[in-house]
From TrEMBL:
<dbReference type="InterPro" id="IPR036388">
    <property type="entry name" value="WH-like_DNA-bd_sf"/>
</dbReference>
<feature type="domain" description="Response regulatory">
    <location>
        <begin position="8"/>
        <end position="122"/>
    </location>
</feature>
<dbReference type="InterPro" id="IPR011006">
    <property type="entry name" value="CheY-like_superfamily"/>
</dbReference>
<dbReference type="InterPro" id="IPR039420">
    <property type="entry name" value="WalR-like"/>
</dbReference>
<keyword id="KW-0597">Phosphoprotein</keyword>
<dbReference type="GO" id="GO:0000976">
    <property type="term" value="F:transcription cis-regulatory region binding"/>
</dbReference>
<dbReference type="Pfam" id="PF00072">
    <property type="entry name" value="Response_reg"/>
</dbReference>
<dbReference type="GO" id="GO:0032993">
    <property type="term" value="C:protein-DNA complex"/>
</dbReference>
<dbReference type="GO" id="GO:0005829">
    <property type="term" value="C:cytosol"/>
</dbReference>
<keyword id="KW-0804">Transcription</keyword>
<dbReference type="GO" id="GO:0000156">
    <property type="term" value="F:phosphorelay response regulator activity"/>
</dbReference>
<protein>
    <submittedName>
        <fullName>Two component transcriptional regulator, winged helix family</fullName>
    </submittedName>
</protein>
<keyword id="KW-0902">Two-component regulatory system</keyword>
<keyword id="KW-0238">DNA-binding</keyword>
<dbReference type="InterPro" id="IPR001789">
    <property type="entry name" value="Sig_transdc_resp-reg_receiver"/>
</dbReference>
<dbReference type="GO" id="GO:0006355">
    <property type="term" value="P:regulation of DNA-templated transcription"/>
</dbReference>
<dbReference type="Pfam" id="PF00486">
    <property type="entry name" value="Trans_reg_C"/>
</dbReference>
Amino acid sequence: MKPTPGIRILLVDDEPHILQFLELGLANEGFDVRTAPDGMTAINLAQEFVPHVIVLDVMMPGMDGFETCRMIKKGGSEVAVIMLTAKDEVDDRVKGLTLGADDYLVKPFSFDELLARIRARLRNQFPMLFGEVKLGRFSIDDRRKEIQYEGQALELSPTEYELLKYMVANHGIVLSKSTILDKVWGYDFGGEENIVEVYVRSLRDKLGDKEHRLIRTLRGAGYRIDLS
C-alpha cells in the first residue's frame, strides 16, 4: 500500500537521533512528516498540522506520552496514536489504550514494523485516503474531493463535502449538532449551531431528499443518515 500525497504523520520523542531516523524513513515512504521534542509542542503542532497518525513516545521529561495522548484525544481529534514504550509491561499498554491510544510498539523496534503499524491504522481509520469508497448509494473519492449519489456527482462546496462525507461515513449513528460542529467545522468554531441546519437543508436539496428519508432529523437528538 503506497500512501497518497498529503498523509500527515507527527513524530514525538525527546531523543533527536530517533526523530531524525524516523523522519527520514517516513519521508522516503512519501509521508508528510513533522516532529516534536516534547508533549506541549506536540499538542500545539497537532492543532496546526492536523496529522492522520501520531507516533508518540511514552517516556518524555515534563509531560509524558500518556498525558500528551489524553490531551490530544480530549480535543476530539480522529488522529490515530501509536505509542512507543521502552517497557513491555501490560499496565503501560492498558493505560495507553484507555487514554485513547490506538496501538503501541515496544522499543527497540524495526522501522518496517512501525511502517506496517502506521499503514494498518491508516487503512482502519482513514480508508478514504486510498481510493474510492462505496457506501450504499454513495461513492466517496477523497482524493478528488468528490461524492457521487446513485452514480451522479454532486456539486458540493468544500464544507458540504466534508459534512456529507462525515455523515455518510457514520451512517446509522445519531449525530448531534455539537458533534457535527466539532468534527466538520472544528472545535474552535465560534458560530451558532443553526449553521448545521442550513447546510443539512442544502444537502437535502442536492440529494432530492424532500421527504427527509435519507437525512433524518431526530428532534432533540440530531441527524442520522440511513443507507438502506
